[in-house]
Structure formats: structure tokens, C-alpha cells
Amino acid sequence: MRGDEDNRVFRANLEGAGVNGRVRHVRRMSDEAHGDVDGSVDMLYVDGAHRYKPARDDIAAWGARVPLGGTLLVHDAYNAIGVMLAQLRLLFFSPDWRYVGRSRSLAQYRHERLSLGERVGNALRQAVGIPYFVRNLVIKVALVARLRPVARLLGQPDEDAWPY
Asked: Which domain range does residue 117 map to?
């Protein structure tokens, strides 16, 4: 099965944190797993395909299961083109998701009802991360084009790693 090593590390991390018995991990493609999870999801971690449609579908379909006050974490935010487009479409001006912040490429949102003014402020707070996205995009293009000096100039220390 794909991702066996990642799954072993994931399980070891849960065990090390002492929460293995409190976390139910469903190992299926996200669009196939909806029937395997009953009810709401208080904290949702979206880390899937980087293309627009799968990212959009994960945020929309799974995000609809997060109750008010719940948390949505989006991995590869401000990093992958498809994820960034899904964020722009679904989260930047959303009346339902308050942007809490990000750590590198992990963005955090809280499910809340936002007024129009709050939505504008929310969009502006998210827009501050767009230069980080553009930098990562340019670094990736430089790495693919074998322009390693350009990537280093932009702060990418490891020549073989993707920027996050």
C-alpha cells in the first residue's frame, strides 16, 4: 500500500504523544472515506493532492463537517499552486472560516461566522502570505530548470528539497 513508511512514522508519533487510542486514522483516498467517518470532525487536517480540484473538494466537502468553533488545518498552503487556488476560492473571502495564521506551509482556520468587514480583514491577513507563495513558486521553477544559484539567492539552502 502507498505510504507505508509514512503510516509507520505517523503511528509511532501518535504512540509517542500518548494519543494513539484517541485518534481514528482512516487510510483511504479522501473522496472515498466520507462514509467511514460518522458525524462532525472537530479538527480537520487537509493534506492531499496538490491539484486544484482535489484540494478544493477536500476543503469544501470535509470542511463542511467541521462544526462552528472547530479547526481546519491546510497543509501545503501558500506552497502548492492547486492548494493556493483552492484557498483563494474557498477561504480568502469565506463567511465561515477565520484565518488564524500559518507556520510555513500549514495554514490554520477556525469555523466561525464572519461579518462583511471581518471577511475583508480576513482576506487581507491571508494576502500577506502571497509573497511567500510566489517565492516558493520561483524557487521550484529554478530547481526544475536547474538554476540552483537562483534558488539559493532566494534562500533555498538545500539544492534537492522543495521549499516549504
From this structure: 40-128
On the 0-12 / 13-18 / 19+ scale of CB atoms within 10 A, 22 is exposed
Residue 152: Cβ within 10 Å count: 14
Angle at 91 (CA atoms; ends 88, 92), nearest 5 degrees: 60
Whole-angstrom distance, CA of residue 1 vs CA of residue 115: 45
Please tell me whether the overall predicted TM-score, pTM, comes out greater than 0.85 for this model: no
Longest dimension (CA), the chain: 50
138's CB contacts (< 8 A; 6+ apart) are 150, 154
Same domain as 73, residue 107:
yes
What does the pLDDT look like over 106-161, one tens digit per residue? 999 999 999 999 999 999 999 999 999 999 899 889 888 988 888 888 888 776 66
101 and 156 both lie in a single domain? no
Q: pLDDT by residue (tens digit) across 8-33?
A: 888 899 999 999 888 878 888 888 88
| Cβ–Cβ < 8 Å for 27, 7 | yes
